[in-house]
UniProtKB/TrEMBL annotation:
SUPFAM superfamilies: Cadherin-like. This is Cadherin-10. It is found in: Cell membrane. Cadherins are calcium-dependent cell adhesion proteins. They preferentially interact with themselves in a homophilic manner in connecting cells; cadherins may thus contribute to the sorting of heterogeneous cell types. One of its GO terms (biological process) is cell migration. GO terms for molecular function: beta-catenin binding; cadherin binding; calcium ion binding. Keywords: Calcium, Cell adhesion, Cell membrane, Cleavage on pair of basic residues, Glycoprotein, Membrane, Metal-binding, Repeat, Signal, Transmembrane, Transmembrane helix. PANTHER family: CADHERIN-23, CADHERIN-6. The keyword Repeat applies. GO terms for cellular component: adherens junction; catenin complex. InterPro entries: Cadherin (IPR039808), Cadherin-like_dom (IPR002126), Cadherin-like_sf (IPR015919), Cadherin_CS (IPR020894), Cadherin_Y-type_LIR (IPR000233), Catenin-bd_sf (IPR027397). The chain crosses the membrane at residues 604-625. It comes from Maylandia zebra.
C-alpha cells in the first residue's frame, strides 16, 4: 500500500529530479501536510528557505504522535552536522521536532474549535558551532475542520405563546441552533430544521427555525398548552449528519371570544333593616370562560335604584349588592330590580353575531330588628357664653325609638368625654345644663357624647356628638405682649424714643382689639405716645440721667381695651440707666461705685456680710440635724415616757433559724413552753422564765383597734374607698416585764443585771452595757 507521503514524494521527484529537494518542510507528510498551492505550481517563499503554511486534520485518534511535516535545508548534506530548532506556539509541548531529520510531530489531539492555526518559527544551525545556516523563518500550521460537533440550541426548553384563534402561518417563536464546526468549509455547519412533535398544530421553517401555526381555530378553552420538539441537523440534513433537539412549550393566550353568562337568572337576597349604609347584603356572579382582562366584568342595575347599588369585586369578578340608603322594615319590606353584566374589554374580531352581556333579576327581602334610638340631629352644635353660671341651660337633644312600639328613651353623658364633669343632662327630656362655670380662655370647644338608651332594652344605645362652643366675654385685661429689656442712656435728650411696646388680650372681640396706653401725666422722667395701632412709644421727658442717682426706673403703664365691660391692667416697664457711646449704643448698665477709704464699696461689704451669715446658718443647721437625727416614735402621747434605747447590730440566725425566736409566743403567750430549749446555742445554765399572767383575750388590744376604727369611720376627710391603717401598740403586759427604771422600786444602782448574761448571744451587748454599770463591779 502506497501512503500519501510516498505519493507526495513521487510527485515532487518528477517536478524536481534532483537528489536533494530544494524545499521543505511540507514536501513530506500526509495529504493535509502539503503546502498550500491554491492551484498553482508549488513555490517556496522568496524570503525563506521553507513553505510558510501546513494543513493538519483535527481530532486525530491514533496512539502515536501525529506526523505534521518535515523541515529540510539545502545546507543539510545528511552528515548530521545540521540541527533543526522549532519555536513559537506550542513548540516543545504541542509540537516536537527531530533535530537531525527535521520531522515535526503533534503530541496530542488537536481541536480546530479550540484553536484553528498555530504560528511557529524554524531555525537551522550548525551542530558544532551553533551558527545559523538559514535565516529564521515563520510558518503556520492550519487545522482542517471535520464534522465533529453536533448542533446545539441555546436552551433545552423554550416557552412561547400565541393568541388563540390565530390564522394559519402566524409566527410563534424562532429557535436557532449553533454548530461549532467551520462555517466556511464544507457542510459541517449547514443546519436544517424539522419538527419531530407538535403536528398538525404547528410547523417550522427549515432554514431559520421559525415555528408557525398550522391549524386554524385553535381554542384555548379546549386545549391551552402544546409541546413541540424541534430538530436541527447539520450536513444540510443529509445522511450521517449530526443533530440536536429542543422542546418548545407553546401556550395559547386568551382572547375575548366568550361572553359572560348567568347560570341562574334569578337571585334572592335577605337584609336586616339595621344594615348600615355602604354594607354588602349579597353577591351574584356570572361565568366567563376567558381569563385575565378578557374575563373582567361590570355589573350595573338597569335604570339605577334609590336604595341599592351594585359594584364589581375586581378579585372574584362578583357583583356585590350594597346599601345606598337606610332600610326600614316598617316602611317597605320587598324590593326587585334587574342587573346587567358585560365585559369591560371587547375584541372587535369576535363581537359580530354575539351579545357580550347578560341579565338577571334580584329580589331583596327586608327583615325586622329591634333598632336603637335615632337622634333628630347628628351632630349637635350648641353655643353658650363663658360667663354662664353653674346650672344654666345649654341646649336640648332629642331621640326616638324608630320601631313601631316607640319605646321610651333615657339620656346620659359619656363621662369619658367629660372628664371634668362640666355638663349634666336630664335623663328624661335631654336638657343639657352646666355643672361648673365655663372659661373660653381655657377651652373654646367642649366635645361630649350623649347616649340615648331604650329603657326596656339597655343594649339598644345610640351616641351622638355634641359640640359646645364657648362664646367670648370680655373678662380678661390686656397686658404686655412680651417682657421688655428697656434702657435709657445717660446722655439722652428729652423726647427721644427708648422703647416701643405692644399688648395682647386672650379675649377675642368681634370687632378686633383696640388698646389704649397711658402713664401718669405727672411722671417727670418719661412720657408715652399712643400710636393707635395697639402699640405705643415710650419717650424721655427730660435728659441728663445718672446711674449714681438712680440706676433703674419702674414705669407703670395702664393698658385698656375697648370691649364691654372695659378691662384694664397696669404693667410695669423696667427702665435701666446705662452708659452709651455717641451713637446711642449701650456700653454698660452697672451702677457706678463710690469707693470707700478702705477700697471696698457698700455693695461689696453687704455681699460679703450676707455670704458669711449664710455660711454660719448652714453650719449651725447641719450640726443641729446631726445631733437630732433619730427615728420618729410610733405613738406620740403625753404619757409615753421611755428610757434611752441603745441599738446594736448583732446578726441573728437568718431564715433557717427557726428556734431562735417564735413569733407565735407573742401572739399566744399562754402556750409558751417554759422548758423549751433553743437548738442554735449551748446555754450556760438553765433558768426558769419569769412571766406575768397576760390579760385574758387581749382585751386591751381589741379596745385599741375598735377605738381607731371608730375614729376612721367618723372622719369626714377619709377617702371613699377602702384603705389600710397600720398602728403600733405595745400593750399593757409583757413577758419580759418592764425594763424601765421609772417603774422599779429599787434604784438603778440596786438593780442586778447578771441574769442578762444567761439570755444568750443575742443579749450579749445588752448584758455588757448594764453589767458593766453595776456598782459592785466597778474597780
Amino acid at each position: 500500500m502506497i501512503t500519501n507521503q510516498v505519493l507526495l514524494l513521487l510527485m515532487l521527484s518528477i517536478l524536481w529530479p534532483t537528489t536533494a529537494l530544494p524545499f521543505a518542510p511540507g514536501n513530506i507528510g500526509n495529504l493535509f501536510g502539503m503546502p498550500e498551492s491554491d492551484g498553482k505550481i508549488l513555490q517556496r517563499s522568496k524570503r525563506g528557505w521553507m513553505w510558510n503554511q501546513f494543513f493538519l486534520l483535527e481530532e486525530y485518534t491514533g496512539n502515536d504522535h501525529q506526523y505534521v511535516g518535515k523541515l529540510h535545508s539545502n545546507m543539510d548534506k545528511g552528515d548530521g552536522n545540521v540541527k533543526y530548532i522549532l519555536t513559537g506556539d506550542g513548540a516543545g509541548t504541542l509540537f516536537l521536532i527531530d533535530e537531525k531529520s527535521g520531522d515535526i510531530h503533534a503530541t496530542k489531539r488537536l481541536d480546530r474549535e479550540e484553536k484553528a492555526m498555530y504560528t511557529l518559527n524554524a531555525k537551522v544551525l550548525d551542530r558544532n558551532t551553533n551558527a545559523e545556516l538559514e535565516p529564521d523563518t515563520e510558518f503556520n500550521i492550519k487545522i482542517h475542520d471535520i464534522n465533529d460537533n453536533a448542533p446545539k440550541f441555546a436552551k433545552e426548553i423554550y416557552f412561547a405563546s400565541v393568541p388563540e384563534m390565530s390564522e394559519v402561518g402566524t409566527s410563534v417563536v424562532t429557535v436557532t441552533a449553533t454548530d461549532a464546526d467551520d462555517q466556511t468549509y464544507g457542510n459541517s455547519a449547514k443546519l436544517v430544521y424539522s419538527i419531530l412533535q407538535g403536528q398538525p398544530y404547528f410547523s417550522v421553517d427549515s432554514e431559520n427555525g421559525t415555528i408557525k401555526t398550522a391549524l386554524p381555530g385553535m381554542d384555548r378553552e379546549v386545549k391551552e398548552n402544546y409541546q413541540v420538539v424541534i430538530q436541527a441537523k447539520d450536513m444540510a440534513g443529509q445522511m450521517g449528519g449530526l443533530s440536536g433537539t429542543t422542546t418548545v412549550s407553546i401556550t395559547l393566550s386568551d382572547v375575548n371570544d366568550s361572553p359572560p353568562r348567568f347560570a341562574n337568572h334569578s337571585f334572592r337576597v335577605t337584609a336586616v333593616e339595621s344594615t348600615v349604609i355602604g354594607a354588602a347584603i349579597g353577591r351574584i356572579k356570572a361565568d366567563d370562560p376567558d381569563v385575565g382582562r378578557n374575563a373582567e366584568m361590570e355589573y350595573t342595575i338597569v335604570g339605577g335604584h334609590d336604595i341599592f347599588n351594585i359594584i364589581t369585586d375586581q378579585i372574584t369578578q362578583e357583583g356585590v349588592i350594597i346599601i345606598k340608603k337606610p332600610l326600614d322594615y316598617e316602611t317597605k319590606r320587598d324590593y326587585e330590580f334587574r342587573v346587567e353584566v358585560k365585559n369591560t374589554y371587547l375584541d372587535a374580531r369576535f363581537i359580530h353575531g354575539l351579545q357580550f352581556k347578560d341579565y338577571a333579576t334580584v329580589k331583596v327581602t327586608v327583615e325586622d330588628v329591634d333598632e336603637p334610638p335615632i337622634f333628630t340631629r347628628n351632630p349637635y352644635i350648641i353655643e353658650v357664653h363663658e360667663d354662664t353660671a353653674a346650672g344654666s341651660f345649654v341646649g336640648v337633644v332629642s331621640a326616638r325609638d324608630p320601631d313601631a312600639d316607640n319605646k321610651p328613651v333615657k339620656y346620659s353623658i359619656d363621662r369619658h368625654t367629660d372628664l371634668e364633669r362640666l355638663f349634666n343632662i336630664d335623663s328624661v327630656n335631654g336638657t343639657i345644663t352646666t355643672l361648673k362655670a365655663l372659661d373660653r380662655e381655657t377651652s373654646k370647644w367642649h366635645n361630649i357624647s350623649v347616649v340615648a338608651t331604650e329603657i326596656n332594652n339597655p343594649r339598644q344605645t345610640t351616641r351622638v356628638p355634641v359640640f359646645i362652643k364657648v362664646l367670648d366675654v370680655n373678662d380678661n385685661a390686656p397686658e404686655f405682649a412680651m417682657s421688655y429689656d428697656t434702657f435709657v442712656c445717660e446722655n439722652v435728650k428729652a423726647g427721644q424714643l427708648i422703647q416701643t411696646i405692644s399688648a395682647v388680650d386672650t379675649d377675642e372681640p368681634l370687632v378686633g382689639h383696640k388698646f389704649v396706653f397711658s402713664i401718669s401725666p405727672t411722671n417727670p422722667n418719661f412720657t408715652i405716645d399712643d400710636r393707635e395701632d395697639n402699640t405705643a412709644n415710650i419717650l424721655t421727658r427730660r435728659g441728663g440721667f445718672s446711674r449714681r442717682e438712680m440706676s433703674m426706673y419702674l414705669l407703670p403703664v395702664v393698658i385698656s381695651d375697648n370691649d364691654y365691660p372695659i378691662q384694664s391692667s397696669t404693667s410695669t416697664l423696667i427702665v435701666r440707666v446705662c452708659a452709651c457711646d455717641s451713637r446711642g449704643n449701650m456700653q454698660s448698665c452697672n451702677p457706678e461705685v463710690l469707693p470707700f477709704s478702705d477700697g471696698l464699696t457698700t455693695g461689696a461689704l453687704v455681699a460679703i456680710l450676707l455670704c458669711v451669715i449664710i455660711l454660719l446658718m448652714i453650719v449651725v443647721l447641719f450640726a443641729a440635724l446631726r445631733r437630732q437625727r433619730k427615728k420618729e416614735p410610733l405613738i406620740i402621747s403625753k404619757e409615753d415616757v421611755r428610757d434611752n434605747v441603745v441599738s446594736y447590730n448583732d446578726e441573728g440566725g437568718g431564715e433557717e433559724d427557726t428556734q431562735a425566736f417564735d413569733i407565735g409566743t407573742l401572739r399566744n403567750p399562754e402556750v409558751m413552753d417554759a422548758n423549751k430549749l433553743r437548738r442554735d446555742i449551748i446555754p450556760e445554765m438553765l433558768f426558769p422564765f419569769r412571766r406575768t399572767s397576760p390579760i385574758k383575750d387581749n382585751t386591751d388590744v381589741r379596745d385599741f383597734i375598735n377605738g381607731r376604727l371608730q375614729e376612721n369611720d367618723s372622719d369626714p376627710t377619709a377617702p371613699p374607698y377602702d384603705s389600710l391603717a397600720t398602728y403600733a401598740y405595745e400593750g399593757t403586759g409583757s413577758l419580759a416585764e418592764s425594763l424601765s427604771s421609772l417603774e422599779s422600786a429599787a434604784t438603778e444602782g440596786d438593780q442586778e443585771y447578771d441574769y442578762l448574761s444567761n439570755w444568750g448571744p443575742q443579749f450579749k451587748k445588752l448584758a455588757e452595757m448594764y453589767i458593766g454599770k453595776s456598782p459592785g463591779r466597778e474597780t
